[in-house]
Fold Threonine dehydratase.
Amino acid sequence: MIDPMFLDTPLYRCEALEPDLGCAVSVKLETANPVRSFKARGTELVASLLAGQGPRAAVCASAGNLGQALAWSGRARGLDVTVVASRFAPAVKLDRIRALDARLELVDGDFDMARERAAAIAEHDGIRLVEDSLDLETCEGAATVGLELVDAASSFDAVLIALGGGALATGVGHVVKALAPGVEVICVQPLGAPAMTYSWRRRRVVTTDSTDTIADGVAGRRPIPAVLDDLLLVADDAVLVREESIIAGMRMLLHHAGLVVEPSAALGVAAILEDRDRFAGRHVVTIVCGGNVDLDAYHGWVGAAPLR
Amino acid sequence: MIDPMFLDTPLYRCEALEPDLGCAVSVKLETANPVRSFKARGTELVASLLAGQGPRAAVCASAGNLGQALAWSGRARGLDVTVVASRFAPAVKLDRIRALDARLELVDGDFDMARERAAAIAEHDGIRLVEDSLDLETCEGAATVGLELVDAASSFDAVLIALGGGALATGVGHVVKALAPGVEVICVQPLGAPAMTYSWRRRRVVTTDSTDTIADGVAGRRPIPAVLDDLLLVADDAVLVREESIIAGMRMLLHHAGLVVEPSAALGVAAILEDRDRFAGRHVVTIVCGGNVDLDAYHGWVGAAPLR
């Protein structure tokens, strides 16, 4: 059900990164597609199933990437898509959602406020609410990244996964733990948006009052209980990284791999930078999960300091 | 014989480019692999064949990308690789050749002088001379890009191919003309390095005394007669573009597609920019053939002016 354009994405060693990171590093590149993130794997499933049913409309809350992906998948199938996002989301994400013919509604708050608004719209209009990470299709779609990884799993030791709502981490984690149990599944979240990591560590939902991170794609405050339950089954670890490490990771991915990525996609490299001893001599795969970034902000981060 | 890592590269529509270009544009992305260009498709063939034979050594001249690719493919098969390049080649290309354990010899001249030196080394040492675009394996490797394109050829009208020595143009052109003859094959070269285009137009080899272009990957002065013969059979057109169009193309690929590319990889977009009427309403594929670029130079080009 997923357009092949979103599948079998590049997976390759980046040796130029390795002197600085002290381990073998491969990237799984999810940015080279029409929506520049892995999210379409899930929205293709959602939209395919929905297109076969009755009312052909859906609404989702999004930090930006899910909304863009649902807009793309919905447009391809004649669905009426509404996206609710924070007005503080990167302009490039909001612009692309509009360009894909979705109705975009902005809330004067963060992603968790957008979730409330999307739920209200769904109830009022009687249309499908697509809940990222809770709706199993979003996790199953993300899990196809894991299927592609395990085909090559004999060669690596750990996979680093950006942790936001949890679709990518539970989807990939489920597949990896089922089919390549020797591979360590490590989730990475910013210190400035630690709710799911705290929840994983305490084995119960922990919410926070606010977030403070440039990694807009993973900045949630209220973990979904059912997603936490899944994450507890499949994650070997969940680590938190500093903002300066995320920026250093983005800079290294540009300078040594030629990749312009959004902050969430640099979380894996940031995790290696913060704990080189843990990864020394191992082969680590990091999922470069998205590349939708405002270039002005990007240049401010990445150009602000010399490479090392 | 080609490592699958280099095959089945992303091919996708970039709608964000289209308002400025006035046509449907898809990119075939050849930068998401360990050598960041399409050249490994050919060197994988060369090295595989060579590894099965006697003397396990080879030398090539390179503008930078072939050398990096031959170093990669040779290292994987225990071959002894020597690369001859201009000392004016981008540092990032030379650094990566050295990092891949190849012997690098620099000449105080341009690519065509490096070709002469490589031939002398091959003769003196009695080792295999790998001649890009002349050796059929280099064209056959590049032709696999064409095979992947024709699988999707029903949906597009023209393919834009960077023209340097001619391996990519003759390889892709041969496959496209054989299997999807309705697709227009358009080669693109910088006005500052027009020798092969002039040769194609006059149907005889035309050399130039010098080159003057930022597109280092395609800056040759002396077309190879046998390659011209092939190009005459498969190219529908060969066009020349200005430096400012190449820079505008690089800038658009960054801003609208999130891709950092070397100048040669922006030739296709440059060709559309210079002749919007020709492509209006059509669906064009441009092969983004390489991403090895010195970032300081890149920022100087791309950051030097506003987007439009």
Chain A has 13 helices and ten strands. The interface with chain B takes residues 5, 8-16, 29, 31-34, 36, 96, 99-100, 254-255, 258-260, 291-293, 295, 299, 303 of chain A (CB under 8 Å). The first strand of chain A starts at residue 11 and ends at 13. The domain at 40-130 of chain A is CATH 3.40.50.1100 (Rossmann fold).
